[in-house]
Write a structure and sequence with these properties.
The protein has ten helices and nine strands. The protein is α/β, with parallel strands linked by helices. The chain folds into two domains: about 180 residues, Vaccinia Virus protein VP39 (Rossmann fold), CATH 3.40.50.150; about 60 residues, rRNA adenine dimethylase, C-terminal domain (Helicase, Ruva Protein, domain 3, Orthogonal Bundle), CATH 1.10.8. The strands form two sheets. It has a seven-stranded mixed beta sheet with strand order 4-3-2-5-6-9-7, sandwiched between helices. A two-stranded antiparallel sheet has the order 1-8. Strand 3, helix 3 and strand 4 form a beta-alpha-beta unit. The longest helix is centred in the last third of the chain and has 12 residues. The radius of gyration is 20 Å and the shape is elongated. The termini are far apart.
Length: about 260
Amino acid sequence: MSHPKKKWGQHFLRNRGAVMRIVEAVEPATDDVVVEIGPGEGVLTEKLAELPNELMAVEIDPELSDRLRAQFGDRITLVNEDAMEAPLPSRPYRAVGNLPYNAGTPILRRVVSDPNCRRAVFMLQKEVADRLVAKPGDEAYGYLTLFVRLYASARILMTLEPKSFYPPPKVRSAVVVLDPDRKPFASEELIHLISASFRMRRKKLVNNLTEFGTRDELVAAMARAGIDEGVRAERLSLEDFARLGRALADTEPPLLSAR
């Protein structure tokens, strides 16, 4: 048994039934690389290695990396790096993993926005999973919801109690399946607009966007986008934000630099 390291947010999956459902959900095409992030003790790796696909495992813990290398040999390509920095495949791949709680969200954002990702099956905190499938007006709805929706569709595959892990975390977990659905209007500028919109959640949208222009300019752009000036960001859909982005870009001079 490995000794979990708190600094890397390690909680090792011990639920064999969940392992099988996760592996089944990956559904790789013949030529897809399977990328496992955070293999840990290799419980998922063992089943993923039975697939006919090339398997790449990214593990930050050097001690666990050595154990995995000894256990699986040349059956896997092992990368002992941080998943936020390790190179992702330059050809189609499926990502899978029990993401560390302290870095799950940035890893998720990195993978779903990568054009070569064909599916991601990730274990996350239930609270984070709820944010991925939230609807406008929901308490969980916010920046992460919309960021992911720019690039993928999300569904919750299953929920797991703390006893499915060692050591048991203090929160419930969930497995999410993310499939590519990149919107034609996805851009860094729109992401920045959405981020600014949720900066102070309880403020009205117009008060969160002062970096983009004067109140009159913002109200006029919102009107052109068909958005009420008294609305809060949590009430707007992704398409609403896309219209607002276009309206801000269409001013003279543009309040948003690109669409």
